[in-house]
Amino acid sequence: MTGQFALTDRQQQILWATVRHYIATAEPVGSKSLVDDYNLSVSSATIRSGMGLLEKAGMLYQPHTSAGRVPSDFGYRVYVDYLMTPSDTLADQAQRLFTERLNWETWSLEAVLRGAAQILSTLSGYITLISLPQLHTASLRHLQLLQVDPGQVMLIVVTDAYQTQSMLMSVPSPDDDGEDGLDPDILDRELQILSNFLNSQLRGKAIADLAALDWGELDRQFQRYADSLKTLFVDLAQRLEQPLMSPMAISGLAEVLRQPEFTELQQIQSLVQLLEEEQEQLFPLIFEPSERPGGDRRVNVRIGSENPLEPIRSCTLVSATYRRGSQAVGSLSLLGPTRMTYDGAITMVQAAADYLSHQLSLMDS
What we know:
- The structure is a single chain.
- With 365 residues, the chain is α+β, with helices and mostly antiparallel strands.
- Helices cover 44% and strands 17% of the residues.
- The strands form three sheets. A five-stranded antiparallel beta sheet has the order 7-3-10-9-8.
- The protein is elongated, with a radius of gyration of 27 Å.
- It comes from Phormidium yuhuli AB48.
- Keywords: Repressor, Stress response, Transcription, Transcription regulation.
């Protein structure tokens, strides 16, 4: 530890033990508790002196003058970045439950993500947030052209995340003899043939790339659709160009509200409103990459006052993105009190993100 984080080995041990004890008990920590419960090999007076120095450094504070000390947000930050030892036990347990309980073959992707959220919230005791893949990163799973009115066809696009977009297009007349167009039955058959052809050619391609395809390769009988299809895909790609807040699977609210940190009704109402009605405010936070020491964990940890949103300024948000190939497409987070079991939460989030990334890669193979 260097600079403002410079602590002696003894001070590091005292801070580590204080954080661990407070996480376990939710009670202010005194020197006697550390002597009784941790093998620090020093006297109670030495521990009190060390706790006093940590308080002056802003890593601990006393909620009451006669009480023991409690870790500050800064104290938790030093613990997470420098003192914490990752715990693989819960990560391994989460991986095993994912494998046993999530059915990628028959469930929709949304159902899989909601199942994963329930598993994580049960294991951790915290709120789990998993966003569905972003539409602007989506690839084509299926498309269908349907006749809806004379001369009007609807293009329905289903992404690999089972999200749907629909757009209308006009169908040019097949000839110039003044007729209104094809017989509806003939048009239906032609649209089905064209849909099958396009699915065979385009399935798995990124929607953002469809606008740049060479539509001149369409069979001659479908050439009159080429300009309309190209225009639709250009519009669709532009519509999805900017990241949008995708639906989010949320689980574990009831469990976390039983924690002693959540006793004020107004605080609970603000948190529930954020999760249910203002999820778009969370979007910039849960997709932010880690720039902290230990960023190789690929997990971002926002502790207490580091969160810009008032409803979660007494919480910790642990987030990671999951990927499809090299591209981040969704996010996974645990939200709980700052008195969080960081070693388990961080490794669970990373393990879950790795699991989802691996499964999505299998869908492309």
